[in-house]
Amino acid sequence: MGYTAVHPVWGRLDVSLGDLGCGHTWAEIHRVKGVRLACPECGGKVFARSSRYGLRHFYHQVRPPDCELANESPEHHFLKLELAMAARAAGWRAELEVSSEAGDWRADVLVFDDRDRPFMALEAQLSPMTPTEARMRTDRYARDGVAVCWVALQDRPWSRAVPTLRASAPAEGGKSWTVRHGLARYTWTPRTLKAKATWEHITCPLGDALAWILQGTVRVHTAVNGTVWWTAPAYEERALERARLEAEAEAAEQEAAAERRREQAAAADRRRRAAEQRALDRQAELKERHNEMQRLAGFFRRTGFDLTAWDTFTQLVRSASGKAIVYGEQSPRYGNGLLVHARHRDTDGGYTLAAVVCPDPHALTHWPEKLDILVPDHTWLARIRTAARVPLRVAVLDPRTGRRTFERIPPPSVHRPRPDRPG
Predict the structure, then answer these.
(1) At what angle do helices 233-256 and 258-295 cross, to 10 degrees?
(2) Is 345 in a helix, a strand, or coil?
(3) 237 phi, psi to nearest 5 deg
(4) What whole-number distance in Å separates Cα of residue 76 and Cα of residue 82?
(5) I want to staple 212 with a disulfide (CB 3.0 to 4.6 A). Which of 62, 130, 189, 218 is the partner?
(6) What is the DSSP letter of 365?
(7) Where are the alpha helices (DSSP H) in 163-257?
(8) Do 242 and 197 form a contact (C-beta atoms < 8 A)?
(9) Residue 87: other Cβ atoms inside 10 A
């Protein structure tokens, strides 16, 4: 259903106008055989029809699926007709369903100024649309010097991005549409910074709101957060007055806080330098770790030790010993195990040999009884228990679970299984 059609001779027809906008009457097209009318949107054949409520319109004999005019909802049709009637009641020439010369936009209602130039599009927008789409469509109109007022029936995300009125249809028995949101006033009494100031959306007849918009009595206002609504210049001036007072108060505060900001800047500079130093330290630490991993590569290959678990294992070694530790070399004397040197924390004493990590089990024949063996799992423990020929102390430091267990392995003559003692 649409309100406009194209006659091959008369041109554009608008059934919301008494003379169809071209000096002819409804009777000349309604139920008249041989009249050829086309849809201005898709070019398909349309016919003049009057609904049971007397609403004149055009319809497609077969509704095309890709024609926007043919597939608009009844609510959309009624709202855009209301917009056109309101604009005309305010004294403006308004036409329905008008497209631009380039065909890149089609206004539901296009309003013309006293020099017959289009200056405002009234858009009944009931279908979904993103805020980005709304801005793009508004910008297309603006490139042709046409402003837009979008009219919706529900709150939509896009309605805060472009100039919008949210309206409601007349209640049963009512006559006028009502604006519920989109037209606002600024309240601020008394005019001091301590007094609360706020924008309030007002309710009024849709016809009044459109008259104010078309006359320039109200104009588009964009809030600091980007939300858009219509308001009177006096309210904008009041908001600017408040903003000036706030700016003056802020300037006074900035003057009083200048020294504090300098101190904060100096502190930030110190933090920056400290962060840079930490980054350098971290870089050096990573390089040191890389070198350490390179140095221990042979140990990892021999033992099959999981590199990803090495740091956790080292933490368990430190925790179990309660001392500061460093790793030495693999020692043939101790079964090619990795030497662990330790010293008491917070002392200046030197490091002493304290343990060996993953020695070759077959080299356990002459082992110092006070030297601990460190292994990462019970598989290693079993291998050492099987090969032991002297009393041994073994610590199982499992990097997967974080558990520590300690085992004393007696020589073969007195060897009896005993449970692990959790650490």
Answers:
(1) 70
(2) coil
(3) -60, -40
(4) 10
(5) 218
(6) S
(7) 206-215, 233-256
(8) yes
(9) 25
C-alpha distances in Å from residue 63, one per residue of 40, 68, 96, 156, 273: 14, 10, 20, 29, 72
For CA atoms 308, 314, 319, 324, give the dihedral sign: negative
Dihedral, 149, 154, 159, 165 alpha carbons, nearest 10 = 30
Cα R_g (the chain), whole angstroms: 43
Q: How many CB atoms lie within 10 A of CB 40?
A: 20
- Collapsing DSSP to helix, strand or coil, 334 comes out as helix
Dist. CA 371–CA 335, nearest whole Å: 13
The distance in angstroms from the start CA to the end CA of the chain is: 84
pLDDT tens, residue by residue, 219-269:
999 998 999 999 999 999 999 999 999 999 999 999 989 998 899 999 999
Q: How far is CA 340 from CA 170, 293, 318, 326, 329, in A?
A: 88, 15, 10, 6, 9
- Which ranges constitute the DSSP H helices of 106-162? 131-143
Taking the C-alpha atoms of residue 227 and residue 160, their distance in angstroms, rounded to an integer, is: 5
Length in residues, the chain: 423
Taking the chain (423 residues) in runs of 10, the rounded mean pLDDT of each run is 88 88 90 88 88 84 82 85 94 93 92 95 93 96 96 93 94 83 94 92 95 96 93 95 93 90 92 95 93 93 90 92 90 92 82 93 81 93 89 93 91 56 48
Alpha carbon separation from 210 to 177, 222, 230, 232 (Å, rounded): 11, 19, 10, 13
Report whether the peptide linkage leading into residue 190 is cis, meaning its omega lies within 30 degrees of zero: yes
